[in-house]
Design goal:
It is built from 4 helices and 4 strands, in the order H-E-H-E-H-E-E-H. By secondary structure, it is α+β, with helices and mostly antiparallel strands. The protein has 2 domains: 73 residues, no CATH class; 62 residues, no CATH class. Helix 3 packs across helix 4. It is globular.
Length: 135
């Protein structure tokens, strides 16, 4: 497995770590076993915007170095488009697959791509379907 440089005080107790540091530790714990698939359910919701961006970059780097399949649950459309190659839109309860979207934005991706025409077009299609189903 590749090594990542993360700066967290090794003597710090978990309860003294920030939310972002706790999230990093949680993800690293999952990586120790070298999984083929990682499931991440809203992993960045409790983080502030700046740390959210840092974590997204970290996840993209981990993915590019390891090739681990990562499955995210997210309510943030921009985040989903930035991170995913395939987006699955679910209906409200009970959750059923409404549509699967292929994300053709080139990799590597970064937050500056959020204004790209491809991003806007994909987001528009997702939001139209989502809003049509919410009614």
């Amino acid at each position: 497995m590749q090594r990542f440089r993360i700066h967290i005080n090794p003597r710090a107790h978990v309860y003294r770590l920030s939310g972002g540091e706790q999230q990093i530790v949680s993800i690293l714990r999952g990586l120790i076993i070298e999984p083929e698939i990682m499931l991440l359910d809203e992993p960045f919701t409790a983080l502030d915007y700046q740390f959210n961006l840092v974590m997204q970059d970290m996840i993209m780097e981990i993915w590019s170095r390891t090739g681990i399949t990562m499955m995210f649950v997210s309510h943030d459309v921009d985040q989903a488009i930035l991170l995913a190659d395939r987006l699955v839109l679910l209906s409200p309860s009970p959750g059923r697959v409404l549509e699967v979207f292929e994300n053709r934005l080139p990799r590597p991706r970064s937050a500056h791509m959020l204004g790209a025409e491809e991003h806007i077009a994909l987001k528009r299609r997702i939001l139209e379907l989502f809003q049509g189903n919410a009614r």
